[in-house]
Amino acid sequence: MTPELEDLRYPIGRFQKKDQYSPDEIKSNIQIISALPSKFMNLLGGWDDEKLDTPYRPDGWTIRQLVHHVADSHMNAYVRFRLALTEDSPTIKPYMENLWAELPDAKSAQVDLSLQLMKYIHLRWVLLMNSLDGDDLARTYVHPETGRIYPLSEVIALYAWHSEHHYQQAFTLAQRNHWQ
Hints:
By secondary structure, this protein is mainly alpha-helical.
């Protein structure tokens, strides 16, 4: 992948896992997740179908697909989070995100459907995350494709990164095309 394509694909860089997250880092990461639906709504509020159907990078998803992906991904993350809190290190169900992005609804549905879904999932998820203590944040789930164990403190960091990662893909497209 060329450096230019890498920058378009990962405008904030790739996720960097840490061994531990401080209470302040966890709080900051929850705030990033909390803010995402409003940030997307503010950015995309006046976009027409032509803009929404523009790929954020060559051979990349359209902004429409990207928004639907974020809603799908965060919906799955919320369920996985709840499983980790109620079961002993459950093995989560993976899904084929690239194939989900190719389904008819991801390619044609109005983005407001996923923005509203994201808004309400995030309200519940943030409420849940803000109620957790250190023992809760140490709870884990297992990803079956890698066998890797994910503590919830890391999941919060991962989805804060995921939130900003995809927001910046749309935002930098808007900047490049002078849509601001």
